[in-house]
UniProtKB/TrEMBL annotation:
The keyword Transmembrane applies. Coiled coil: none annotated. The chain crosses the membrane at residues 724-742. GO terms for cellular component: extracellular matrix; extracellular space. It comes from the Eukaryota. Residues 223-371, 375-525, 529-702 form the FAS1 domain. It comes from Folsomia candida (Springtail). InterPro entries: Adhesion/Biosynth-related, FAS1_dom_sf, FAS1_domain. This is Fasciclin-1.
Length: 746
């Protein structure tokens, strides 16, 4: 039995510039052929060995023409290209070219080839030639486009991650950052470079031998799509005919680097083809950007691209986003203004059914319905969603648990204000927490109603109204509102909706319908799954309260699942009021050295041991005689007042002028207020349910300037305090004393 260590083998390879013929290489040459082994495997082995120590080599042996990896499997990465190299051996052109020409070879791994074949892809001589360029290019030399050796010289489109040199894509295939730039010289001294890629590059090649169909642009592909065996079971003849009828085929011929979205014929089983007009066709082209699907993930979230339809009165933007499932991508168009009844405002989302089709002037993606076209009601939009589509589980919930009157309201909303539905994600609706309610029809029906508003509420309505005050709307659930807020994160606005104590992020706003709008959210409203601590931590309106109560770890007590809390939590705007009125005191609260002041102030806002709704607190605050009944907080006495209480007081006050009347909807838009001493704070978001309590968000902090004193230094273990008198109080006392001393008796 002949045995050779890798070190001995590598030494012989390194010393050999011609095809290897020694017996110990028979295993490789029988399988690969001499040329491929010499030019490619040799480069791979040598480059790999330069990055590994000799201890790894000792674990690899070749015995009787077979190889075994015992302790270390790292060396097997060298042989991850055996399937591709076996295919290269069968290519007459590459066999003739590799020994004598410079070039760059992009080699897909064994796994990439297996996956490609599993998905029905073919690998023939055309495919192999599309992996070879006739100029040697290291990754640092790669530009935006690279011609290949396939007849017609169709290009490979190159995308780089602007934030990382390690992310480089060729069409939709990624170069392996650990196995790239393998460079050698052939027998003529010409450079050759090999890069390992994780997917097969699939060229757009005609089935016929017609040279006019080689290297097609998007127009030629659209017109002669049946000649390219690349669309699978999908046809695109309807869209092609419509574009030809409207004289818009040249839109797909433009020289440059563009992205084209083409609806498949199945889309027009539900949508009338005449809804596709010139503006709609223009909206299916993104000029000056080549967007392959996986490289699109390198862009910032919610990256929007201008379409060819962009005009002052018809702005349309498009985004590409990956869904949770592997290799599922959604394309959305966002029409920012309605120009007529045929071009409505809103978002249309469609799924890529066949993507990454390279063409001479960019890339083509086939989609399952046209962009921009809005011709379905809210109910139809939900009902037409296919299984596993974004709104599928919510419509299923309505079908199974929604009452008949609820279904009628959704199908035929009254009036002309429209309807808005907040649709939780499929993942949220499939969570075990909701499963506990399955079978409880009334509870689920109430939850569904909380997600429905009989009015059209768009994202800009939310942001504009939230600038002035917390924005809220009534829902189909009796006496329950939704509250809205937004934050600007990395230059984009993120919207939030809160209902029944649950705060959800609006992940996709403004999905358009003919009679309203749909917003996708990431959680189910009304079903509490956060404790008080988590709610303070995650709610954008409570960031300042969470930050201040983090001093001395005060807010950790809200993690206690054995206790119940009622918390009047000041909003961010409430703390801003303190900053404007008493900036010095506010600064002290933020310093971190006086956390005991924050603790005392917040304890005035909390009740420990019970979780009260605002209605229960109001009932406790008022007895049968309408007299104030105090509520004991940890530090302080609170009282809850409603708008009706104020109206009654006004009506019964003998001092108000005849003819005056009180209009609570103007004087105070909020139903309830909390009172402490002379301070009054409006409850802007009541009844936020948590797993261990209830939060009521208020717009004014219940405190006075002398709550913050620095005349003593208390330890972090709550040392007893020494009284400190506010300077103004001392001065006023001295003035009063001197006045008494020098005043003359009458």
């Amino acid at each position: 039995m002949v045995e050779h260590t890798p070190i001995h083998l590598v030494q012989e390879i390194a010393e050999t510039e011609s095809p290897l013929r020694t017996p110990q290489h028979e295993f490789f040459t029988d399988f690969l052929g001499e040329n491929e082994f010499t030019i490619v495997i040799k480069a791979l082995v040598l480059v790999w060995l330069t990055t590994h120590d000799t201890a790894d080599m000792a674990n690899f042996k070749i015995q009787s023409g077979k190889f075994y990896a015992w302790k270390d499997a790292k060396l097997m990465t060298v042989f991850c290209l055996l399937q591709f190299l076996s295919l290269v051996r069968g290519s007459p052109f590459l066999n003739a070219s590799l020994p004598w020409r410079q070039g760059t070879l992009f080699a897909p791994t064994n796994d990439a080839i297996r996956k490609h074949r599993h998905l029905g892809g073919r690998i023939d001589n055309h495919t192999l030639l599309y992996h070879f360029a006739n100029v040697a290019k290291r990754t640092s030399d790669l530009e935006d486009i690279l011609s290949t050796e396939l007849p017609g010289n169709p290009p490979i489109w190159i995308t780089r991650n602007p934030r990382s040199d390690s992310d480089i894509y060729l069409n939709d295939a990624q170069i392996d950052s650990r196995r790239r730039n393998f460079q050698i010289k052939n027998a003529l001294g010409m450079d050759q470079v090999l890069h390992v890629i994780d997917r097969v590059l699939d060229p757009t090649v005609p089935d016929s031998s017609d040279n006019n169909l080689l290297n097609p642009d998007a127009r030629k592909f659209l017109e002669y799509s049946s000649s390219y065996n690349i669309t699978g079971n999908h046809r695109i003849t309807e869209f092609a005919r419509r574009a030809a009828m409207l004289h818009k085929l040249d839109m797909f011929k433009g020289i440059g680097r563009h992205t084209f979205f083409i609806p498949v014929d199945e889309a027009f089983n539900r949508i009338q083809i005449n809804t596709v007009d010139i503006k709609v066709i223009d909206s299916h082209v993104i000029p000056n950007h080549v967007i392959f699907l996986r490289p699109s993930e390198l862009q910032p979230p919610k990256r929007l691209y201008d379409t060819a339809a962009m005009a002052p009165f018809f702005p349309v933007l498009v985004e590409v986003e990956k869904e949770d499932q592997e290799d599922k991508y959604i394309v959305r168009s966002d029409t920012r203004s309605a120009t007529d009844q045929f071009h409505l405002r809103g978002v249309v989302q469609t799924e890529v059914v066949k993507g990454n089709i390279p063409v001479k002037n960019g890339v083509v993606h086939l989609i399952n319905k046209p962009l921009v076209v809005i011709d379905s009601t809210v109910y139809q939009t939900l009902a037409n969603e296919k299984e596993n589509g974004p709104t599928y589980e919510f419509f299923k919930l309505i079908s199974e648990y929604g009452s008949e009157d609820l279904k009628n309201i959704i199908q035929r909303p009254q009036g002309n204000k429209g309807i808005t539905i907040f649709v939780p994600s499929n993942a949220a609706l499939l969570s075990p927490t909701l499963g506990e309610l399955k079978g409880k029809v009334k509870e689920l029906n109430d939850i569904i109603r909380l997600h429905i508003v009989l009015n059209t509420v768009r994202s800009d309505n939310i942001t504009e109204a939230s600038e002035r005050a917390p924005f809220q709307v009534e829902t189909l659930s009796p006496q329950k509102q939704l509250f809205f807020n937004y934050q600007t994160i990395d230059g984009r606005r993120v919207l939030y909706v809160e209902g029944g104590g649950v705060n959800a992020t609006i992940t996709q706003p403004d999905i358009g319908a003919t009679n309203g709008v749909i917003h996708m959210i990431d959680r189910i409203l009304s079903y509490a799954d956060q404790n008080v601590y988590s709610k303070l931590q995650t709610d954008p309106m409570l960031q300042k309260t969470f930050e201040l109560t983090s001093q001395d770890y005060f807010n950790r007590r809200f993690n206690d699942s054995k206790l119940k809390f009622t918390l009047f939590a000041p909003s961010n705007l409430a703390w801003e009021k303190i900053y404007r009125i008493a900036p010095s005191e506010y600064k002290k609260l933020q310093m971190g050295e006086f956390g005991y002041h924050v603790a005392k102030i917040i304890e005035r806002h909390m009740i420990v041991g019970r979780a009260f709704t605002i209605e229960q607190l109001h009932e406790l605050s008022t007895n049968a005689s309408d007299q104030a009944f105090p509520i004991q907080a940890v530090h302080g006495i609170l009282r809850i007042e409603s708008k009706d209480d104020v109206a009654r007081k006004f009506a019964n006050d003998p001092n108000h002028r005849r003819g005056d009347y009180y209009r609570p909807e103007i004087s105070n838009p909020y139903p309830y207020s909390v009172l402490w001493m002379n301070e009054k704070s409006n409850v802007v978001r009541p009844n936020i349910n948590c797993t261990n309590g209830i939060i009521h968000i208020i717009d004014t902090v219940l405190m006075q300037p002398d709550d913050v004193t620095v005349g003593y230094i208390a330890s972090r273990s709550d040392a007893p305090s020494i009284p400190f008198y506010h300077p103004l109080l001392i001065i006023s006392s001295i003035i009063v004393m001197f006045s008494l001393m020098f005043s003359r008796p009458l």
